[in-house]
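Duplicate of earlier report; TonB-dependent receptor input re-posted below.
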Amino acid sequence: MVFATRLLFFLFLLFAVKVMAQNLGQEDEETMDFVYGSEDMISLATGKQKPVPRAPAVATVITAEDIKEIGATDLDEVLETIPGLHVARAPQGYNPIYSFRGIFSQFNPQVLVLINGIPITNLFHGDRNQIWGGMPLQAISRIEVIRGPGSAIYGADAFAGVINVITKTKQDIKGTEVGVRAGSFSTWDAWALHGGSWGGFDIAVMLEYGDTNGQREIIDADAQTFFDDVFGTNASLAPGPVNLQRENFDARLDITREHWRLRAGLQRRRNFETGAGVAEALDPNGQFASDRWNVDLTYHNPEFFTKNWDVMAQLSYLDTTQEVQQDVRLFPPGADFGAVPGVDFPEGVIGNPEVFERHARFNISAFYKGFDKHQLRVGTGFYYGDLYKVKETKNFLQDPITGLPQPLGSLRDVTGDLSLVFLREENRKNYYFFMQEVWNFANDWELTAGLRYDHFSDFGHTVNPRLALVWLTRYNLTTKFLYGRAFRAPSFAELFNINNPVTLGNPDLDPETIETIELAFDYRPTDELHFALSLFHYQWDDIIQFVSEPGVAGHIARNAGEQTGFGMELEADWGLTDDFHLLGNYAFQQSTDEKTDENAGNAPHHQIYLRADWEFLPDWHLNPQLNWIIDRSRVAGDNRLEIDDYSIFDLTLRRMVLKEHWEIAFSVRNLFDSDAREPSPVSSPKTFIPHDLPLAGRSFFGEVRLRF
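Output:
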């Protein structure tokens, strides 16, 4: 398999070199505007719109039209198409792990996700929310992704990569659209979008609803299977299916007038099941819920004082919850850990953790263009995050020696009792200042230099620089030399976890840091053909890990890890004819755990993605795509065989009818029913889910949408 992958890559590269050679010397400057004029723009790299080939970052833009070609039903299916980014799964809720360039962790706080440029990071685990529940796509106008560090602009957690989801405006919707989708796993989705004007305001309203029972692939053995073997019980529900039922409601509002924009949104999650279990033991009854609502007000004036000043100010608020809808069982009824004669937990080990957070942000920045060949940007801001309420009911205590649950009696509310509750209520303040200069110091050369200073109330300050040298080597070839440093703030679970049978916090943690260097090329020999190549190397320090220590039950958070990595990403986009478009990418990465001098594990060494758009008849589009995940090593200490490679082939058929008012589509996901699995966490003395986390088999979806 590895040989075949490398052969395919070699042939792909050979073809690219051949095309470059054929086109070398074509200096027709009249084609410059054609090559770059229609190119996707990105603002994520600098805060200002710039063509992707000339942006001072390795970036990808995915449009709403791309999303339809993919046939995707959720954000994760779109992100899997980006080179160097793989979407793995965590056992709890099957939450996505966005693994950039081999940087893999269970709660995935090393990736910053923005909605319209505003972070949606939660304090508890530093991720998007443990009750994520996916994100529907109909309200999305475009997705901008930077691979590599972004802390010089965005601060904390813009570490391995940055994902910015940009929602639709009146101009994107242009009227009204309604649609419905139904398919496998008792899934159905419905949406309604409207964009128009009223009283001098441009208004966009977006509503999306989804309900699914989720795929039901089988977990052969789980954590309770292991404890059954140890204590002679028979409580495990494995073999049994993963539990992925959920109900989602998303609403968004966008109101614009002159220099002002008001946005508001709600992400409501209900009936959110536990996936492979909160403690890696199957739980078919536990359910979570979450309400996440946000509002932001932006003022943007590109000629604030004079035509040389471009000023933007923004105020935003996010409220987010993790709530328990039905009792969550860490271990099933009949679990017995030998604490008392008979069955310790006839109703199961019940733990209901609830977290309530609020986040407020204010920032102001300005571009100044009055200098010759220089463009200066300065900005400052303030963030206040408050984990203001922690609630918990449970029926167990932690054995201080073994770390195993022992009976507490009937279900008990331990909220506010610091001797029993799982987490302390805390808050975080962050003041920051940044500056960036873009210097056109010579023809076809542009240097971007940036620096950001952050001060945090709970762990001190950090400074993060960036440098990007962009060289327009030829009219159709761009070369980039990039350097960046980034940091990841410790989550509140890492700092303040208490009374937890598995992990304990440490308030003395330092932030994780990473330094990355990159060399990138963007080549467009003709208007139909585009190649991009990026090479990277990174050094990841002060990795926060939960480690065992003498006299401590469970594991305590320490800055204990170090990882290095290098690799490359190759992209190609080829419009063979007016009716046939082919694109693909190949990514390679090699990452080393410096503490063990072994492969860091879990993330794929090779990824191949191919997609075609074929209009085989007028208004009939066929979109096949292949995603091939190759060569994933285990982490040090995991003696299981390496996880199998997998390839997933999807097919989407789309038809426009009645002058594009009606659109129908039919998709098959995982057409060949591949046995695809993502790595389960390694545990000691034995891995609880030994046969990894199974992904969905073959599934079918059909949709109808109407525009008027």
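Residues 1-38 have pLDDT under 50 and may be disordered.

Merging into the original ticket.
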